[in-house]
Amino acid sequence: MAEPQERDLPSLEDEIFGVAHNVEVEKAAPARLQSDRAQLFAERARAFLGRDVKALASGFGMFLLVDAVMMYAPLMTSRRPSLLPQFVTLLVLAFGLGGLLAWKVGGRWRMFGYGMMLAWVFLTLVSVGFLTGVTVPL
Predict the structure, then answer these.
(1) What percent of the chain is helix, strand and coil (3-state, nearest 5)?
(2) In this predicted model, which residue has the larger pLDDT, 22 or 73?
(3) Could you tell me the pTM of the whole model?
(4) Which CA distances in Å does 93 have to 7, 60, 63, 112, 130?
């Protein structure tokens, strides 16, 4: 059996191929801002970006999904039916439920509601109203 001292010595293979394994990287300390007020602002901004933006994006994505499901069939038919039921339903969903979440429920649901309302506005502006039923299809 090998002596304990010989076991601790690296082999030639370890010396050739083990260079990257032994590289030590020092972790940088997080930057400390000058004042406590600036530090508090930075912590709140990190918390906002981590939590509230995700809730906003979730509301936006949820409304996009619901809109795609509701508007697919009417816009893919050759004979265009009235889009009034879809328009009313999407409007109530975005501003009724979204406003309720923002006004009464609060918390993270507030940003979810804002995301739904922003998605309705975005889809209306980008599609010139076709995807939300605002305009009459041609």
Answers:
(1) 70, 0, 30
(2) 73
(3) 0.62
(4) 70, 12, 8, 12, 17
